[in-house]
Amino acid sequence: MRFDTLLIANRGEIALRIMTTARRLGLRTVAVYSDADAEAKHVREADLAVHIGASDSTASYRNIQAIIDACQRSGAQAVHPGYGFLSENAEFARAVVDANLVFVGPSAKVIDLMGNKLQAKLAMEAAGVPTVPGARIKGIDQDIAALAKQVGYPVIFKATAGGGGRGMRIAEDETVVIERYTAARSEAQNSFGSDEIIIERAIEHGRHIEIQVLCDEHGNCIHLGERDCSMQRRFQKVIEEAPSPAVTPALREAMGCVARKACESIGYVGVGTLEFLLDQDGAFYFMEMNTRLQVEHGVTELITGLDLVEQQINVAQGQALAFRQENVTFQGHAIELRVCAEDPYAGFIPQVGRVERWRAPKGVRVDTYLEDGTQITPFYDSMVAKLLVHAANREHAIQKLSLACSKTVLLGVKNNLSFLRHAINHPIFQKGKATTRFLGNEDIDSALWRNTQTFHATVVGAFVLGRVLDGSAGKERKGLSLRPQCLVQMQLSSQMPQEEQLQRVWIRPVETGFQVSLEVKIGDDLAERESHSVNCSFAGAGKVICTVDGIRRELEFVQPDASTVWVQDEVNSWKYTRLAAQVKEDGFVNGLMSVRAPMTGTVISVAVNLGEKVEANQTLLVLESMKMEMPISISLPGIVGEISANQGQQISAGQHLMEITQL
Fold this sequence. Notes:
16 helices; 8-stranded antiparallel β-barrel; Biotin_lipoyl; Dna Ligase, domain 1; 39 strands; D-amino Acid Aminotransferase, Chain A, domain 1; 24% helix; metal ion binding; 5 domains; alpha+beta
């Protein structure tokens, strides 16, 4: 069972994370890559890399035969699946073993058992593990409304073959139960190839607590404490921490004992996680088991001092655990933030594009594949980095993480860094009271960015773009020479509420030289515009020192082309585009409306037909990008005209999808 060459059947930050440990253990590493990842960092960092197919994950990272062939071609003797893709695919684990290779994970039999939520629930009930009340939906002809009433509202629909928050919907009452059930089935089919659904009672204001387990083939099984993953959006984790502020030592021991008992009952071997819902009364219920390394494994590593990837590799090679339960200790507090390429100010729509600048903060752990020039594509998950901190206590950990967000530079794609920092500084999170319903609440979400300021960034954007108006872009010069007074009209298209998108900035230079003094006015009405005294000077490549009314800040910027500049002011990043004229207004133009894609992705379904009358907010079609489905609708009624989008079609942000005629 010993091996010296490990193939990592994954990409991005987890592939790099596994390589780091494998290299320390003296193992040779093999990467696999799709067309989209030909120049990716994980490909360059590996000892050897094998091309396995087209950009679509089904043709590459989910292509079992291509990965087995890559092992044979590279001489790899073992496969680490990472997380996502094929990591919980029993067929893949079986194929690896059948090819006389070592699978770094549990057996195919256990993956198969725990990979189906219904089977897993029955197995846990047989082992005496408490589970959430619910029922199996046996077929599409079943009376869903009656079943939901029997279970008790609110209910949650879950894809039995699913994970990662996909194929899950909550129905608060009978008015939305059929709609939510249908949506869960659709997403389950598209994500996992199975539309089998179970229904459970939704525990309101619960905590999502997971127990990390580690078992070897010699009968040793321990738990490594809990992680609190209650900070979620659309059932996808956003912030994780260990230990949980809601778990007492006695509760930790009780949950740990249940988790170990569950593992022993199914013969589990390897690293795994049992996920529980903790209600307000302290009762906990099994939800599912993840038979793989978790995205959030790093917070457990930080409080235990253990390398979980190393433990996985050791167990896969037949080694016994080198310690017992009583040897496991927990030190301090750890928190992780998932940095995603998405726009929180536009419904968290996934983003694609080129990373113009990436600078990781110092003094914290950063797991990422980002670097200058990285292309974010629509083919894979939107998570691009993880920021992890460890401190003596929770309060200090939040402070360190908040500062780390401010010191992270990510320009070129919209991201959720500002949202994350606001979230960890919200009083409810700081008090340790956040439940699974905290994020996703419209009032709370909007409060997380309500006080975001853009003034300094707007001034710097105008300062940089002002060179373009003067025709001086690209020229070597020490200062800035503008026309006596110029208007820099800019479209602010990153991380701002829609009604504040257009920025008009008047600039009048007071003097010229290495340090430029400017009079800046922002606003539409000449009489009402506020006037500010501004000093701007370049402070090295991609940096501007901006002093507005005596307040000095150093801001980072990149200018990918003559008309665009990205500016970062602490944790907030903004994209400014110089406009020649005001953008078109929303709504019908000459009786017609062009429905355009809000994001790059794939058309999952077209819900209307040519000539059909549609109501306001009726779903016209459904798009999918980075594993997220988004129904597209308009706010006014009309009649469907030209339909340019087809099911399965790959589309780009802004692309015309269909035409609606005004009623």
